[in-house]
DNA sequence: CTTTTATGAATGAAGG
DNA sequence: CCTTCATTCATAAAAG
């Protein structure tokens, strides 16, 4: 019942992009299990620490994030990869671009359906994919534009359709700070504020 | 490290030999993620508790408000300016999910207030946040459902589209509380709300 | 193999 | 409520 991602039409490249039915390997499973165990350990540590109530607030020294969490961090490369994402085939992309250019930035529910339907003949695709594509396309197109203060009078052009083959003319300099964080935000103590869920240790 | 060899039923990918097999559904993945988030929450709480008890606040550079300055692994974002957009903490999310599941999809003004109040103990939050969250949650939940009815009985007809990448599989109705039997001992800190785990992959 | 970039997807918030 | 937008996250693909 799942999304057994099959190599779409783009598996034409021998030795190249074959994407498999990858969901999670044993290895990843193991990593995951370790992560959980890791948290359990951390909790234990914290409880102990708390119990002893050492006046040494050297929790920092304990380094919650590094001591036992090592496997979690170092194995970042393993990423508990979840789902794979759709990758448009060249053909699909072409069509999408065309529609985007010609069309108005208004996908429209019904239109989406049609497009998806058509594109499905060139590879696996879903309506959501189409929807997302347009959303992203528009948003990014817009962004590029506003980030083009090179020279020339500023003109409020926005919903302007751009040339088919002129998307990424601007290298632009915005770093998405994407530091190989495997869900770091979720896995780390990112939020302070008190709490009361752990009263048991008290 | 090699664990069990995979059922070598996949001889198809030219590139590197399919070494990935499906051992976990995305739904299970979500559940797992949640669990991990739970651990993160617990640890977070413990840290706070410890911190407050020792009246030492140098544990980490955590600060109040909606500034998510986690000293441990935060990606290189120095956004000291804080976020403009609220991001639920694992704990808050947990609670919200729970309410969403159990409760009726009717937030109700008064209810919102209560919820917001409670959640505020786990991080910055406003009533509007809660309201929006429920709105979005519901709307999206709905959409997911209609997008993934039951594409199971369907036999492959054309290319191979047996199960489109139904990327949207929200675990809102996750209640399969299966336990990762393999190493239950590792999971000592079962979380009350989301005590769930992966189904054994044996 | 590791790092960087491009981009599909997720989600909080705003509009109607 | 439902749709749309903006921002962020995660990852496939590309570069080194």
Total DSSP E strands of chain A: 0
The number of helices of chain A is 7
Radius of gyration of chain A: 24 Å
Q: What percent of residues of chain A are in strands?
A: under 5%
State the largest interface: A-B, 82 and 88 residues
Oligomer status: homodimer
Low-confidence stretches of chain A: 1-22, 55-82, 151-202
Overall pLDDT metric of chain A: 57
SSE order of chain A, one letter for each helix or strand: HHHHHHH
Task: Describe the global form of chain A.
Answer: elongated
Helix content of chain A: 40-55%
Structural class of chain A comes to mainly alpha
Largest sheet of chain A: none
Distance between the termini of chain A: 45 Å
Family (chains A, B): Belongs to the WUS homeobox family.
Protein name (chains A, B): Protein WUSCHEL
Domain Homeobox (chains A, B): 79-144
Main location (chains A, B): nucleus
